[in-house]
């Protein structure tokens, strides 16, 4: 019996087949831990980023944006603790050469580590050794200790070192936040599960600066805000849960993860952390600059702000939206019990293509009329045009990439200036005047509810 469940293998296959994600440098055998986003993938990723950016900046008066440089002064990473502490314990099998993170039970059990026994071949393991996750390179003409620089392993530090510049230049008063989307790099011991864990990825982070003593209130506020965000864009609430950290990072007072149920089980999607005043205190010590906030509304009171962090992986969000949207649906069509369609039920705001325009035939002026309609719609929507093959097969191609609406132009369109509007989720078709088409699509997007 054919399996119609959602698996990672199916997601990977669809992504390559339809141009969402390709293996980096594939013609050379591929580069581990790196992926290229194709035409549909970059539209999906950009739409997810725009939705997050709108949520965090446009809808919050107290949050502004930043784009900090990837290359930062090396002392930044000394202050943050990354140079000394940003490492994982690594073990290798002496026989099969497999490599494992010794602290990750999904890769190797504690019993295997303690018994020094490889879970793959039973061979002997090396002693655990520290493996720094930062990529190190050189800047300038000489390659010596004075030229060492790092590719940033997170985007947050760029926010911390700019917090006072931003507060002063934009006249911001606490509480306020700074949001950033950007690339980060980690020399992961083991990359796995497609784009879930990679060496090069993008983060969507917001650091919210608050008065000490008010941190717990804002921590709970942002925990609720971030959990309520994902269902707005069609993610099923039952696929999300909180995970409370019992073992905290050195900088954290409290921490929760929002986890999503991927095909491989519940995994971290986004972290919400109470980072206290650790980061700004460290940068004050290492830079020699006073990073205290001066509260002019309270008698010029001075203090180092506490920070509530929300940190989500953009590329991991892409995988979540793909996995949550993917469905193989049985279609009741003329008694054919073997008729199934693959559909991505993206929210229209997220979908790479919003509207596909399809002429019923390529001849008799239908193609030209369809192109005219596409040109009208592309001012407001991301569109696609497809005239190859039977109309049913074209609908299925659009279903597979998650296009919410298809517009079919037929012979009646030439006579009465109407078109057929098809809905991806229900496969319902309605007749709409061409003059009302854009307004109808906008209304359907505004009122969209996932079925």
UniProtKB/TrEMBL annotation:
The keyword Disulfide bond is annotated on this UniProt entry: no
Summary of subunit composition and partner proteins: Homodimer.
Keyword tags: Aminoacyl-tRNA synthetase, ATP-binding, Cytoplasm, Ligase, Nucleotide-binding, Protein biosynthesis
PROSITE patterns: AA_TRNA_LIGASE_II (PS50862)
Catalytic activity: tRNA(Gly) + glycine + ATP = glycyl-tRNA(Gly) + AMP + diphosphate
Positions bound to ATP: 186-188, 196-201, 268-269, 313-316
Similarity comment: family membership: Belongs to the class-II aminoacyl-tRNA synthetase family.
InterPro entries recorded: aa-tRNA-synt_IIb, aa-tRNA-synth_II, aa-tRNA-synth_II/BPL/LPL, Anticodon-bd, Anticodon-bd_dom_sf, Gly-tRNA_synthase/POLG2, Gly_tRNA_ligase_bac, GlyRS-like_core
Name the record gives this protein: Glycine--tRNA ligase
Gene: glyQS
CDD domains to which the protein is assigned, alphabetical: GlyRS-like_core, GlyRS_anticodon
Assigned GO CC terms: cytoplasm; extracellular exosome; microvesicle
A Pfam short name: tRNA-synt_2b
Single Gene Ontology MF annotation: glycine-tRNA ligase activity
Subcellular location: Cytoplasm
GO biological process: diadenosine tetraphosphate biosynthetic process; glycyl-tRNA aminoacylation
Source organism of this protein record: Teretinema zuelzerae
NCBIfam families per record: glyS_dimeric, PRK04173.1
UniProt EC number: 6.1.1.14
Role played: Catalyzes the attachment of glycine to tRNA(Gly).
């Amino acid at each position: 019996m054919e399996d119609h469940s959602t698996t990672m293998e199916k997601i990977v296959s669809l992504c390559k087949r339809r141009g969402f994600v390709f293996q980096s440098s594939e013609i050379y055998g591929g580069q581990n831990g790196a992926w290229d986003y194709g035409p549909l993938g970059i539209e999906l990723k950009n739409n997810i980023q725009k939705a997050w950016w709108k949520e965090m900046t446009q809808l919050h008066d107290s949050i502004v944006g930043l784009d900090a440089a990837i290359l930062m002064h090396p002392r930044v990473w000394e202050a943050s603790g990354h140079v000394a502490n940003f490492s994982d314990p690594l073990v290798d099998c002496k026989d099969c050469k497999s490599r494992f993170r010794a602290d990750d039970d999904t890769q190797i059990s504690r019993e295997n580590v303690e018994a020094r026994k490889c879970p793959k071949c039973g061979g002997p393991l090396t002693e655990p050794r520290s493996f720094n996750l930062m990529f190190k390179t050189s800047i300038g003409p000489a390659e010596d200790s004075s030229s060492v620089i790092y590719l940033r392993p997170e985007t947050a530090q760029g926010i911390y070192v700019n917090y006072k510049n931003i507060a002063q230049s934009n006249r911001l008063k606490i509480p306020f936040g700074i949001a950033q989307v950007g690339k980060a790099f980690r020399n992961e011991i083991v990359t796995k599960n497609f784009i879930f864990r990679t060496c090069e990825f993008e983060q969507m982070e917001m650091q919210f600066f608050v008065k000490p003593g008010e941190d717990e209130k804002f921590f709970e506020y942002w925990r609720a805000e971030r959990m309520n965000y994902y269902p707005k864009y069609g993610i099923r609430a039952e696929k999300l849960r909180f995970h409370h950290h019992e073992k905290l990072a050195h900088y954290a007072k409290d921490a929760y993860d929002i986890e999503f149920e991927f095909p491989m089980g519940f995994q971290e999607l986004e972290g919400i952390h109470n980072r206290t005043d650790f980061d700004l205190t460290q940068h004050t010590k290492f830079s020699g600059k006073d990073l205290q906030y001066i509260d002019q509304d309270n008698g010029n009171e001075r203090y180092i702000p506490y920070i509530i962090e929300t940190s989500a992986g953009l590329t991991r969000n892409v995988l979540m939206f793909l996995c949550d949207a993917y469905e193989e649906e049985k279609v009741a069509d003329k008694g054919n019990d073997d008729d199934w369609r693959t559909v991505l039920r993206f929210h229209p705001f997220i979908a790479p293509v919003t509207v596909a325009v399809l002429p019923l035939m390529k001849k008799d002026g239908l193609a030209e009329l369809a192109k005219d309609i596409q040109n009208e719609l592309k001012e407001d929507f991301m569109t696609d045009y497809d005239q190859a093959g039977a109309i049913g097969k074209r609908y299925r191609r659009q279903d597979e990439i998650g296009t919410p609406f298809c517009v079919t132009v037929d012979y009646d369109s030439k006579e009465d200036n109407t078109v057929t509007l098809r809905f991806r989720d229900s496969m319902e078709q309605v007749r709409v005047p061409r003059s009302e088409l854009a307004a109808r699509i906008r209304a359907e997007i505004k009122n969209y509810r996932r079925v």
